[in-house]
Amino acid sequence: MGGKQPDGPGALRVSRAARPEGTRVQVGPVEFGGRGFVVMAGPCAVEGATQVEHSAAAVASAGAHVLRGGVFKPRTSPYAFQGMGEPGLRLLADAGRRHGLPIISEVMETAQIPLMEQHADILQVGARNMQNFSLLRALGKVRKPVLLKRGLAATLQEWLLAAEYLLDGGNEQVLLCERGIRTFEPAMRNTLDLAAVAWAKQHTHLPVIVDPSHATGEPSLILPMSLAAAAAGADGLLIEVHAKPEQAMCDGHQALTPSAFENLMRRLPAVLDAVDRHLLRPETPAQIAGAR
Ligand code: PEP
Ligand code: MN
């Protein structure tokens, strides 16, 4: 595979023309890309057994479909908490199993793939790694879905071409994730590009997820931007939730409390209804166990 130069964007494997009906990505009982809207939530980083259990319990009871948690953290400072690594991944997987939720976690380098492939249900490629082409090539060989975040300053074409590496490598289970881009505006952590969501839905067949946590860096903006993402045609959300944001070791300033997250889950259905979608129906833990 690879090597053959497509004639233009229309010839790419990711282009909508290649699969006009759209791609559905299945993770156990959770389907992305259908009428059901998927919510992934949990802490920025796994910090310990109690913290991950409290976060998992909170997001599961509010109706989230997938549990998030980073164990390999791409931190701006080398002195900041870098993540718990493998023991953290095991804690996250155990919490996911206890609460009937598949898990998503970030893979930062090729050497981490076997471990992530074994324990995580969705492998996240972070914004800083969107153009790590050796990582993308290796993930093309993986038989687990990959969530590809848009780079901090990546054009839409660059984002799609990064996804093309995954599809060209043989992995068609790809979710795109808009997480805000860097602009001249300093009031928010990033600038959420919602037009990119509608654009990506038109130009690719891949499901599109929005991460309003990293896009805004501001808890009070996460509800309105989540509703707007649903209205813009996103297929789901990736949201940071922490049982005690003030004690978080990473990104606590942008984490939703469990009650703010519950409120968000209550508000989504009305907007989804307006665009002929609905929250993905919750499955019972027994159904999930059967599908795993
Ligand atoms: C994250 O999801 O915690 C993360 C590091 O995100 P991003 O790569 O979008 O900065
Ligand atoms: Mn984070």
SSE topology sketch:
Blueprint: E1 25-27, E2 30-32, E3 36-42, H1 49-62, E4 66-68, H2 86-99, E5 103-106, H3 113-119, E6 122-125, H4 133-139, E7 146-149, H5 156-168, E8 174-178, H6 194-203, E9 208-210, H7 212-216, H8 219-232, E10 236-240, H9 258-274, E11 278-279, H10 285-291
Parallel strand pairs: 3-4, 3-10, 3-11, 4-5, 5-6, 6-7, 7-8, 8-9, 9-10
Antiparallel strand pairs: 1-2
Helix pairs in contact: 1-2, 1-9, 4-5, 8-9
Bound molecules: phosphoenolpyruvate (PEP) and manganese (II) ion.
Manganese (II) ion is lined by residues 44, 214, 240, 250-251.
Can you tell me about this structure?
With 292 residues, the protein is α/β, with parallel strands linked by helices. It has a single domain (38-71, 84-291), classed as Aldolase class I (TIM Barrel, Alpha-Beta Barrel). Helix content is 37%, strand content 15%. It is built from ten helices and eleven strands. β3 (36-42), α1 (49-62) and β4 (66-68) form a beta-alpha-beta unit. Phosphoenolpyruvate is lined by residues 44, 70, 74, 126-128, 149, 179, 211, 214.
